[in-house]
Amino acid sequence: MSDIAASAIDLCRALVQCPSVTPEDAGAQGVLEKRLRAAGFKTHPIVFSQEGTPDVANLYARFGEGSPHFVFAGHTDVVPPGAAASWRFDPFSAELADGAIFGRGVADMKGAIAAFAAAACAFAERGGAGRGSISLLITGDEEGPAINGTEKLLRWAYERGERFDHCLVGEPTNPDALGQMIKIGRRGSLNGTLTVKGRQGHVAYPQRAINPVPHLVRLIGALIAAPLDSGTAHFDASNLEIVSVDVANPAFNVIPAEAQARFNIRFNDLWTPETLSAELHARIEAARRGADYLMRFEPCNALAFLTAPDRFTDLVCAAIERHTGRRPSLSTSGGTSDARFIRAYCPVVEFGLAGATMHMIDECAPVKDIRTLTAIYATLLEDYFSSVP
Tell me, what's the pLDDT at 131? Predict the structure, then answer.
């Protein structure tokens, strides 16, 4: 295992040294592809395009034939590092210090990609192909608009006959320490805008104007007055947050013509975007009292989903507990991830490094955690191909 772990550390540093800020690849997927090809994987680098969006590099790699077919998924793109001068080390130097690797994307999620790639390569090199197939789905569009990434890569793979049995996404699922948590689902995310029309006028002559602000305040109150639900067995209660209120009015003596509020809802498996829209429209209509309003919702590609606990989740938990001594909790908390696309093709869970420093200045991951994560993934592969039909 020490050789596998060393390979993971070297690969992690090589990946972090590629400044692959969305949508740039900066050579990251080429580094990964080279390692996979050396282990016997058949690789398929693919660039997806769509008008009005940046081109995005993606990588699909497979070793073996037939089933069971296990998939690791992840993203090589990272968020911008911010001011490099604020970092302890250059954010793309992958510096080793204090027992950790420092650099943008090491926690989210190049450390996990290096760990599962090293584990998958070692498994393949030991002859794992005779027991099924291992694939990697890697995108460069998770931190971006998620248009030319995983969703299109999954469709491409399906159309060429690829069928997956189970998937693990290497997102940083643990709040503070490795082994605390796996994600077995995610809440959905829906964005909306509420606009109230008024009539502009002088504040000294309110009878000649219609002030949209009091109407907007009342309608916002109607949206948030009652909880959407009280949660389910695996999900917290759905939550609506007002994120912006704006009238675009710099003057003190003018009644504005329009007022607008923007909001986001993180919703559980009791709702769909359609049923949420209907519920919120009903709440607004009940409180309308003559207000001239428009409420619209952005296209939604983030539906709530759940991978029900079963033998597969038991295998993942057992591998984690074996190497960390912790039995992870099964969670659906947090934001969205590319698992929302994968769930349409096979059961999917998420487990990676601790996320305490992700997207932060001085993002880092302990070397021992990357080593342990590599061992967890290696054990999972051995157990999976021995236990899952």
Answer: 78
